[in-house]
Structures are given as structure tokens and as C-alpha cells.
Prior knowledge:
Elements: H1 3-19, E1 26-27, E2 32-33, H2 34-46, H3 51-58, H4 62-74, E3 78-82, E4 90-94, H5 96-117, H6 122-145, E5 148-152, H7 158-171, H8 189-192, E6 199-205, E7 208-217, E8 225-233, H9 242-256, E9 261-266, H10 271-279, E10 283-285, E11 299-304, H11 319-327, H12 331-339, H13 346-353
Parallel strand pairs: 8-9
Antiparallel strand pairs: 1-2, 3-4, 5-6, 6-7, 7-8, 9-11, 10-11
Amino acid sequence: MELARLRAFRADSRTMVRELGFLQDDCRPAGLPHVQVHVLLELAAAGTLRPSDLAERLQSDPAVISRTLARLQEQELVASEPDPVDRRQRLVTLAPAGLATVERIQRAADAQVLDAVALLRPDEVDAVVAGMHAYARALHRARLQRDVTVRPITPADDPQVQTLIRTVMPEFGASGPGFAIHDPEVDAMSAAYAPPAARYWVIERQGRIVGGGGYAALVGGEPGVCELRKMYFLPELRGLGLGARLLRMALDGARDAGYRTCYLETLEHMSRARRLYEAFGFRRLGAPLGATGHHGCDAWYALDLAAGWERPMPDLLAPEVRAALEALGHSEAVTVVACDEALADTAAFCAHYGFPE
Length: 357
């Protein structure tokens, strides 16, 4: 996104904040500070929460939440009781007066939004709803990615990478004969992926290796053909767009190393991973290449690196979804969402964003 467009987008965001009244000291319908309103709304949505849950949901300091809950309890808007599972924690719920306050907030907020969308055409309403979902999700994932580091593997990472591979592969039924889990390199990945002919990156979070992937020359393959290898993520990392990020790094690295084709082997039932590969332009093959020994795999793909692999918007979305989201100028965020293993297919994307399939 060019700078002028970025600044205009940010200016629109500030206008929204002002028009919605968030710069006022209190939320007018409730006469309460905005942080108290957010706490009430979260409790209305969840029913019962611990203070620590509220702090995490609202991305707020636990001390701020503690003081906020104390004030709400003084006003008899919330009630709390000891957690029967952990007596050191308390469970917080809305009191009857809190429920009534939330109802006033919801009615006023609904009316404010409806007054605005009444000025839009139906297609503009669809675009705004889809764009808000996409942007909110992108902001959430970008925040979660900030404590993640993607870097080249080192010898010190070998034990954790070995554990990663041998943890994730059985999850997908890839633990028997003919799968990469039995490759000798799994015990010493850093030595097996010496650049530039091969590279492997790890994804680190708070000192733990939670994902990885790389490329190397295809065993038994023609010159100029590499293989995308051992790209695996623990569940906590999935759905953050890191699959697309790491795949992009691997393809860039392979092309810079002089490879013309990138080959990969996977499983038919790993549909989310396959959709990610297809989003990047990998084409399905009828038979395996090379001599990897991975006869347990039943889906094979190849990508022409020489032709370039960049595709600004994956061909995975229904036309009406693409048109609505592109109209908002959010193509960068949309590309990440579309490449997300959890939302890559059109049906899931449409269901998530409220569009017809």
C-alpha cells in the first residue's frame, strides 16, 4: 500500500473513532467510561469470565481490569464469586442492573450504525461489513505475530525441530512407512539445510520453536528442481497467516538460489495446506517427481519459479466477495486472509464474512 493511500486510510480510521464518540470521556448511552462499557459487553457475550480472561480479551493491563471491575461492582453492575476450580480466581458475571445497562448500550449503538448504513447502497453495505471483518482479523493476527520471530535454523534448534516434526506429522496420519518423519535428516536439520542450495527457517515464539519449513534440491530430480520440505506448524500458530509468510520466503529463497521449479509432496486429506499451495500457483501433478522415498504421500504439486509466483489475489474467492473486498482497497489483508489455511476455500470465506456461496 503506497504511503498516500495508507495515510488516507489511517485518517478515515481516526474519523471513525471520533464519530463513534470514543474520544469522549464517557459512553453517552451508559454514562460510563469506555473501558467499563467494553467489560460489560464482553461479559454479556461470554456470560462468565475471570478477570484474567477479560484482560486478555481487552488487551488491557490486569491492574486496569481489576480497578474497573471494582468500580462496576460498587455500582452493582457486575457480581463475582470464587472460582470453584481455582479459589484464587474469581468468576465475574453481569448483575441485573448490568444487563439493563448493556441493553441500553446495544440499542443506542445499533441505532448509530443503522443511521450510517442507511446512507449506503446495498453493495456498499456488503463491502463495509466484509472489509471491517477482514481488517479486524488482520489487526488481530498482526498483533499475535509480533511475538513471533522467523529466522534461519541453527544447530541449537535441532532438538526442538525434531520434536516439532515428530509431533505434527502423526496428527495428520503421516507417521508410518513412506513419510518424511523417518528421514535421517530429521535428527540434524541444520546440517541438512546448508545455504544456498538448501535453507530452512524456524518460527520462534517466546524461546520455543513452534513452526518451520524450507527447501532443498529434489533427491533424484532434474537440475534446477527443488523441493519444499517439512513445513509444519503447531496448532497455536495456525490461522495467523504465517503459512503464507513462510511459503513466500521459501519460494523467494529457492528462486534466488537458481532453482527453476519447486516441487512438493503432501496428502490429499490435508486440504487446507493444499489450498494454500494452490493459492500461490502450484499446479497438481499426476505422479511424483524424483526419488524421495515418500510413497505414503498421494498428492504432488509443482510451481514454475522462473515464470514468477506472485499473485495479488488468489483465485479462491467467489466473485462477489472479491469485488466487495477489492472495493475497499484491502487487497493486502485480503490476500493474507485468503491464504489462511482456515479460510482459504470460498465456502469457508463466504460463511465467515456473511456472503452467499
